[in-house]
Amino acid sequence: MRIPRSTAGRRRRTAPLAAVLVCLTAVTRPDVTAAAPPLPPVPAPRLDWRPCASGSPFDCATAKVPLDYREPGKRSIRLAVVRRKATGPGRRIGTLFLNPGGPGGPGTLQMPQWYEFFPKEVRERFDIVSWDPRGVGESTAVRCFDSDLASVAWQAHVPAGFPVGARERAAWTAAYGDLAQRCLKRDPELLRHVSTTDTARDLDLLRRSVGDARLTYLGTSYGSFLGATYANLFPDRVRAMVLDGNFDPRAWFGQRTTTGTGTGLATFQRLGTDIGAAATLDRFLGLCGAAAPADCAFSAGSPAATRNKFAQLSTRLAAHPVGGWTFGRTIDDLLTNLYVVHPAWSWAATRLEDLWQGRALQPSPPLFPQPAKMPYLGVEQAAAVLCSDSPNPRDPAAYQALAELGARRAGAAGQFWAWASEACAQWPVRAADSYTGPWNRPTAHPLLLVNNTYDPATPYRGAQAMATQLADARLLTVEGYGHTVLLNPSTCAKEYESRYLVDGILPPAGATCRPDSAPFGTGRPEGGKVTAPLSTGRPQDGTATPSLSAVKPRGGMDTGGGALADAVG
Asked: Is this structure's pTM higher than 0.90?
């Protein structure tokens, strides 16, 4: 699901395209049909590794792969690949592949930024490799504008966060209709071949290129869905997979699920992203209110008073934006900052307090070091995957009703995430190759799922659904907050992941962890097993932030754009 603002460092907003069970869910292994007819053989690409920059510990290479795996002799495309070699020579096991999510997450940028978050033993025993998926970043990319300036000019016409009122809805719809036509004119053939299935086939070629007989993989957010796709396309080639921040695969495709998702909803509503975001926002406000103002700048002295203060601020911003900070733009910024608890929750509280005091904000600082030259990561790259892969209502006029439904069930987060899929209403193509199930093909080895109970992008119920649908998966619950456990560290979870990745040992059934540190100093978890819940209970499907659904914001214009560029991953 990006990324509100990709944690790769895209702190400047573009447009949101915008993602887990206390005990093991054991599933029987039913007979299933073959995943797909055989494809023509494709040779593994040669990876000519060279230092990414002088003195860099990271190596870079380019892989050549077919655009269309059903006709591999025709057009080829390139994949940009990055590697950090195992730090314990002589103890190396193989290669761990990372997909950082999205869709549209650039692995060549994010893996180096996230490298220190990997458990020490994993860094010692594995080469860690990532790549920019087809259509993204430094790989053969979807680029629908003639220049970066043209992209910025387009973004200026998209309301920040989400549109409010007939004028903004018309501007939003027109902008994304224009984007779709620009993309169709530039490279329609590429647009049809950037699906999750295409990327899973690329991943299998990269596995062969590094010489591994089976795949060892970590996928975060949307990367969990990519991992599930690979596991069901190539079940006999799975060595170990950690899926962190999980999607419900059936919900992604609008199929009937056990999580109560309805037909006719947009992608992120089916996934429950809006509900997860609302539940996490409610916990953010409650924990802030329980903390002293020195620890949480927005605290009003109690959870109830802090929630009420936020409702008042929302109403005020809806009527009177502060220096261009509309209600919609503020919600966009806030939901993004819920992704990484330390330090972004404290930043978010300070930013809300500044707005409360009438002070306009500067863009949030980047969470991770930025390269001297950023790859182009336009909103169209996330849209190309989401819109070709996952069904969404095709009538732009339907999204106002979906946003109203979102407001009723998840407050402002519901409005934001309803509009996050609207780009797909006018998207011109569907994926030529898309694996839609079954999801329970028996794999060579079991999978490990991990999820925070309060994840603002990939809610816990998505991990429950994933664990139920996969043939052999164990779910490790982390009683914590933020988007993915990788970026919100838990020593307990890291130890379990290390034992699984290195030795193939799963956590005990029912194992539960907690994060290394709580938000705002409201508790003192030590990264061990939970002896008591950090919260009063797991988020329920109907959780929403009080008072927000009644707010009718008046959004504004911003070069940031809205919901698309921040998919979930």
From this structure: no
